[in-house]
Amino acid sequence: MERTPESLTGAPARWWHTLPDGRIQCDLCPRDCKLHDGQRAACFVRANQGGKMILTTYGRSSGFCIDPIEKKPLNHFYPGSSVLSFGTAGCNLACKFCQNWDISKSREMDTLMDDATPEAIARAAQRHDSHSVAFTYNDPVIFAEYAMDTADACHALGIKTVAVTAGYMHLPAAKEFYARMDAANIDLKAFTDEFYFKLCVGHLQPVLDILAYVHHETNCWLEITTLLIPGQNDSEKEIRELSAWCAKELGPDVPLHFSAFHPDYKLLDAPATPPDTLRRARKIAMDAGLRYVYIGNVHDKAGDATWCPGCGKAVIERDWYEILRYDLDDTGHCKHCQTAIAGRFGKYERAFGAKRIPVRLHGG
Length: 364
Known about the structure:
Elements: E1 2-3, E2 11-12, E3 16-18, E4 24-26, E5 34-35, E6 39-40, E7 46-49, E8 52-55, E9 60-61, E10 63-68, E11 82-87, H1 101-104, H2 108-111, E12 114-115, H3 118-127, E13 132-135, H4 144-156, E14 160-165, H5 171-178, E15 183-187, H6 193-200, H7 205-217, E16 221-228, H8 236-250, E17 256-260, H9 275-287, E18 293-296, H10 301-304, E19 306-307, E20 314-319, E21 322-326, E22 357-359
Parallel strand pairs: 11-13, 13-14, 14-15, 15-16, 16-17, 17-18
Antiparallel strand pairs: 1-6, 2-8, 3-4, 4-5, 7-8, 9-12, 10-11, 10-22, 19-20, 20-21
């Protein structure tokens, strides 16, 4: 925690309580930051102002882009659709391998250039024909109030909402947050507490609890991403254990994405992930009973495709974020054998494509 000399501004935050010694404790995530007046939490964006918690980044963003939904990555949530993506600043984990560290580790004044109310974001998504809005780039857990208000504004216009998150959140807050999310991609960064503690300054179990809660207790569509880092979380034993947990606790239909690492931030001495490691991980996960296992950050025809568990044919062929062939009907059934594919689907006319379009918003 850090005390900052400048006067703090922001919106009232939720999920906190006052301690007997006069400090306040943030109850949003397992870090349980305890703050004196003027102090910021570890995420840097939640702060004690006059004995009350505020969110300093409410209404301010590090930028907006229209992306393909596959970039989140979500392969079973309205494939081929576009999503208006944005983030703020800060993070409640401290991953040494963070691939968005310029946003997640920034002081918010360095990067928050766009002001936008929740209603303005929803209208922008509607104006650009985006099917959904994604809270991403940094973790939406730490700007949950802003994300939830934006989700309400989006739903009022018939626009879906997506959370891209590490899932490091206390359950009471998660219940309110995920009630407003239509889909989530949650990072399962590894399957050992040692990895979480040493490389992320966190713990594994809270993430497993949130994964199970989202899948079993909400209507939010769930996909999982694991970034495989050579020598850190890519052993066959760990991948087997991770895959077995997913199959047992979540079932065979939650898609799992294994993504390639590239050296970044404070983990520059680890090599990039070899494609063969990703293919090996995919086979292990499928052998464990998972039906939908993907490879990310590299080109791989088999690992990019969605395969029908009924007839074994590729029902969606992709090249990275580009859809090359689509053989599902409007309800997500295989056109070859009528097997239902797990996910959220609708009428498919054409894919948005792999392009990324920056968008500027102007206030409320």
